[in-house]
């Protein structure tokens, strides 16, 4: 099993990157936030990996943060949730938001992800609710169902995923409603105080 790779990024696309370590190029699948936060070609990077052995080869699913890898591994303990689906969820909303959704038992929000229906979302909440309490997630965040739409809108406007995530995390928990949260996120990203 490959736990992490450190090396030079020799190629990068939206959903994958090739990291060369000791003369060997490893193609690593990336999702959302990880693809956006990985440095440009020529830079040195470290990614944490899930190694998936399939009948047609080995696939590496990469994460720029170790805690995202841990969350993905937790999701994969649920029957029917493979590495690609788990990476897609974690890469889209991030570990903090996902933990908040599970803690607050918001299975309907999880059911919106490709490969996750209502039954599987209910199982994720039920089976992981106690397990995530053992994870070191730092500050507890409040889950807002409209944040997925806010992230998509800000991404479409050209903002970096890292800036979007930081703005949503820094936002006051009293800011409610998708429109108000979008306005607050724009102010935070552009450097104004909420």
Automatic annotation (TrEMBL):
- Helix-hairpin-helix DNA-binding motif class domain location: 73-92, 108-127
What biological-process terms (Gene Ontology) are attached? DNA recombination; DNA repair
Q: Where is this region: Domain III?
A: 148-194
Subcellular location(s) per record = Cytoplasm
Q: Which residues form a coiled coil?
A: none
SUPFAM superfamilies the record matches: DNA helicase RuvA subunit, C-terminal domain, Nucleic acid-binding proteins, RuvA domain 2-like
Sorted alphabetically, which keywords does the UniProt record give?
ATP-binding, Cytoplasm, DNA damage, DNA recombination, DNA repair, DNA-binding, Helicase, Hydrolase, Nucleotide-binding
Identify the InterPro entries for this entry.
DNA_helicase_Holl-junc_RuvA_I (IPR013849), Hlx-hairpin-Hlx_DNA-bd_motif (IPR003583), NA-bd_OB-fold (IPR012340), RuvA (IPR000085), RuvA_2-like (IPR010994), RuvA_C (IPR011114), RuvA_C_sf (IPR036267)
Q: Name one GO molecular function term.
A: four-way junction DNA binding
Question: Could you tell me which residues belong to the region Domain I?
Answer: 1-64
One GO term of the cellular component aspect?
Answer: Holliday junction helicase complex
Q: Can you tell me which family this protein belongs to?
A: Belongs to the RuvA family.
Domain remark from Swiss-Prot or TrEMBL: Has three domains with a flexible linker between the domains II and III and assumes an 'L' shape. Domain III is highly mobile and contacts RuvB.
Quote the subunit structure annotation: Homotetramer. Forms an RuvA(8)-RuvB(12)-Holliday junction (HJ) complex. HJ DNA is sandwiched between 2 RuvA tetramers; dsDNA enters through RuvA and exits via RuvB. An RuvB hexamer assembles on each DNA strand where it exits the tetramer. Each RuvB hexamer is contacted by two RuvA subunits (via domain III) on 2 adjacent RuvB subunits; this complex drives branch migration. In the full resolvosome a probable DNA-RuvA(4)-RuvB(12)-RuvC(2) complex forms which resolves the HJ.
Instruction: State the protein's purpose.
Output: The RuvA-RuvB-RuvC complex processes Holliday junction (HJ) DNA during genetic recombination and DNA repair, while the RuvA-RuvB complex plays an important role in the rescue of blocked DNA replication forks via replication fork reversal (RFR). RuvA specifically binds to HJ cruciform DNA, conferring on it an open structure. The RuvB hexamer acts as an ATP-dependent pump, pulling dsDNA into and through the RuvAB complex. HJ branch migration allows RuvC to scan DNA until it finds its consensus sequence, where it cleaves and resolves the cruciform DNA.
Q: What is this protein called?
A: Holliday junction branch migration complex subunit RuvA
Q: Which organism is it from?
A: Candidatus Wolfebacteria bacterium RIFOXYB1_FULL_54_12
